[in-house]
């Protein structure tokens, strides 16, 4: 479905004939979505955008799983599972009434579409540079969430990057109703400095976000945060004030992407890191 145009799976409908019976028990409501999310993380190359919910119709309760069309295609199976009939390297596609490995024409259409999207992005970038002038252009690295300004770097939230047009004061006019990051004065050494100002938008996640999205517990998250030195690295972590004398640890989108990729590439990583973390704490009497 993600490789096609998205779709929905309805629970509570009889197979044949398709009679809307409603859910017969509470298994759907009690199912932990993190279990299914872990399967996606383990077996597919890109995050699948999906959600799980219930709804009322005909005075009955139905379950629904919604799968959105993938922003980047194709999603490729990254590991073989004989019982589930998953094959490493295969691309699965939802056809009318069946899911199967993709055929030539549909794969060609996907690749052609991705090429066209990339072509349009390049054209937009080139047109923007031509309009602004190369001397006024600053580079925003959407992969790392950084913007280079002279010798310095600024950390920017990824969700904000795609919506911004950067305006350096005194260089060119801001357009009305256009989202802009306005750079006033000179910026130096913002990265890795105690004077950096961090925002909620740049660090949207707390510890519970990781336990939910990665299907791990809080201790396992602490072990992974220790392993990859998340705390203290402004690319991944910031301590934000919640009051005059209180603060909370917040984490960036990039930190979530880092842990998700590492867990996907090494299914036994969490157990190994957890053991090393326990030994580290014991040896340091923590």
List the helices and strands and how they pair.
Layout: E1 7-11, H1 27-30, H2 33-43, E2 50-57, E3 60-67, E4 92-95, E5 98-101, H3 104-132, E6 139-141, E7 146-149, E8 152-155, H4 158-161, E9 165-168, E10 180-183, H5 207-214, H6 218-227, E11 237-241, E12 247-251, H7 253-265, H8 269-283
Parallel strand pairs: 9-10
Antiparallel strand pairs: 1-3, 2-3, 4-5, 6-7, 7-8, 11-12
Instruction: Give, in spatial order, the strands making up the sheet with the most strands.
Output: 1-3-2
Number of strands: 12
Major sheet size, sense and barrel closure:
3 strands, antiparallel
Structure annotation, total helices: 8
The SSE string, one letter per element, is EHHEEEEHEEEHEEHHEEHH
Low-confidence residue ranges? 166-174, 178-198
β-strand percent reads: 15-25%
* Spatial gap, N to C terminus: 48 Å
Output the radius of gyration.
Answer: 23 Å
Quick description:
With 286 residues, the protein is of the alpha+beta class. The chain contains eight helices and twelve strands.
Report on this structure.
With 286 residues, this protein is α+β, with helices and mostly antiparallel strands. The chain is built from eight helices and twelve strands. Strand 6 and strand 7 form a beta hairpin. Helix 6 packs across helix 8. The longest helix is centred in the middle third of the chain and has 29 residues. About 10% of the residues have low confidence.
Q: Can you tag this structure with a few keywords?
A:
3-stranded antiparallel sheet, single chain, 20% strand, alpha+beta, 286 residues, 8 helices
